[in-house]
Amino acid sequence: MSTVLDLHSHSEASEDSRAPLEAYLNWLKLRRAERPVDGIVLTEHRQFNRDADYRALEDKFGVMVLKASEVETDYGHILVFGVTDEMTRRFDFANVRLRAQELIDEVARMGGVAIPCHPGRPNVGLCEHYATKPPLENVVAVEVLNGGSRKGEDERSEELVARYGYGAIGGSDSHLVSLIGLCATRFDADVRSMEDLVRELKNGVYEPVDFRPRRKPVPHAVAVQSK
Amino acid sequence: MRYEDVNIGDALGPSEMYLSKDQVRTYAKAMGMLAPRFTDDELARKEGLPGMITPGNMSLAILGKLVTDWIGESGARMTRLGVTYRQPVLPDHTIALNGFVTHKNDADRSVEMDIWIESDEAERLVIGTATVQFPA
């Protein structure tokens, strides 16, 4: 049985999102036909809420909720899956200048996995940093599909994957309720917990999936000059 | 439209709007926003921009109008509007205005909605949320 997870989302716990978790789950329930997502991972900016318990909401809406974090490094933003107390003691997640190589290696040693997100995005993505610095080692995968990508960003991410042989994931990077689940990752295996997810990201079979509607560009209208 | 008639998932728009350079210049001048990036292509390019851009307040106002048009004569009122500017809104292009009702709060008869401006290449340029309060 395969599992589809949106691996990148922000609830109102992130300072730039106003999306309540309950509204996310209700939206996925309403839009299940067009966004068949089994679960989401909350990747709040620069923080990890160890004590949050979402079981009641999971049961109410039938959507799995896992917790991770999006941190900021000298190579751009990185999603950290499988966060432990040891990790939050070792790294100050609020620090916006974490060292990416150290983070990737240490998170792996502590049983998690760190995955660079939106690598094709200017300033906060891996591609731009690779133009001036040596490539990172021990990168398992990068986020190739990001729901907030601008024109060309996902394509740059695909080129990065082709060049370095990284695995590829997808996530909505949703900050608005209605954008949840637009991009996700399909795993061949059954994923029911963070332990399952970390195991599959390291050794499993997965691919990014795109549920964004194919919209026609708006036709260019005729200018009406104001008087 | 009454509060009871509103459903989660209801759409605002999509509606299209051609944003002319004259409209943007007129708005900028009326608001006292005289920076050349809002009025002159060549001078805007000297600042590293692709050409003159729409003032953020104008984008905010356009999204506000999307919400107030949706409210219509219902007697409801917009009590909050917040946006994030992701990319410049370039005049001399057609933009699309979109939104969805995402949450209803029966306790205070308020409705939450997502709203955004999309470019003619379907990129989300400005995204935000609004709250609308319906009368008892």
User: How many strand units of chain B?
Assistant: 5
Instruction: Estimate the helix proportion of chain B, in percent.
Output: 10-25%
Shape of chain B: elongated
Radius of gyration of chain B: 16 Å
**Level-2 CATH architecture of chain B:** Roll
| CATH uppermost class of chain A | Alpha Beta
Secondary-structure element string of chain B: EHHHEEEE
Can you tell me the overall shape of chain A? globular
The percent range for helix content of chain A is 25-40%
Biggest pleated sheet of chain B: 5 strands, antiparallel
Low-confidence stretches of chain B: none
Mean pLDDT of chain A: 93
Oligomerization: heterodimer
Q: CATH superfamily of chain A, called what?
A: Metal-dependent hydrolases
Strand order of the largest sheet of chain B: 1-3-4-5-2
**Total domain count of chain B:** 1
The top-level CATH class of chain B is Alpha Beta
Name the CATH homologous superfamily of chain B.
Hotdog Thioesterase
Q: What is the terminal separation of chain B in angstroms?
A: 13 Å
List the helices and strands of chain A in order. Answer: EHEHEEHHEHEHEEHE
Write the layout of secondary structure elements.
The complex is a heterodimer of chains A (about 230) and B (about 140).
Chain A: E1 3-9, H1 21-30, E2 39-45, H2 55-61, E3 64-73, E4 76-81, H3 85-90, H4 100-109, E5 113-116, H5 126-130, E6 141-146, H6 153-164, E7 167-171, E8 183-187, H7 194-203, E9 206-210
Parallel strand pairs in A: 1-2, 2-3, 6-7
Antiparallel strand pairs in A: 1-8, 3-4, 4-5, 8-9
Chain B: E1 11-19, H1 21-30, H2 41-46, H3 56-71, E2 77-85, E3 93-105, E4 110-118, E5 124-133
